[in-house]
Amino acid sequence: MKRPISLGILGWFMIVTSAISLVELPLSLRNPLAVEMLSRSLLPVWATLAVGCVSALFNIVSGIGVLKGHAWSRTLYVAVAAIGLVVSGISTPFKGLLIPGVVLLAIFSFFLYRPAATAYFHRADA
């Protein structure tokens, strides 16, 4: 069974955007406005950046797993995204910024768990 196009797009999207985040997050410390906004979080700036970098690494691993057809990769993505949203919801004073994350999680979950994707992941793990 061939990988559904949606999973190929999703896997590469996860890899590329997470790789960009890994580069962008540390560089954001050079921007005084970004540092000011990060300092408004309940978490220290270093902890916020660490959580972002660790999440990005997990998402890269998950994206690679999606491209290779490993069913665990979709569970990893959903778990990391959900935990990230909970941490952000608790720590950030900017609750409106969570809406895009919730929408993306819902859309990605739909594509990761739809019947064609499930058939592909079960075929690949067999």
Automatic annotation (TrEMBL):
TM region positions: 45-67, 74-91, 97-113
This protein's UniProt keywords: Membrane, Transmembrane, Transmembrane helix
Entry protein name: DoxX-like family protein
Organism: Paraburkholderia megapolitana
Source organism phylogeny: Bacteria, Pseudomonadati, Pseudomonadota, Betaproteobacteria, Burkholderiales
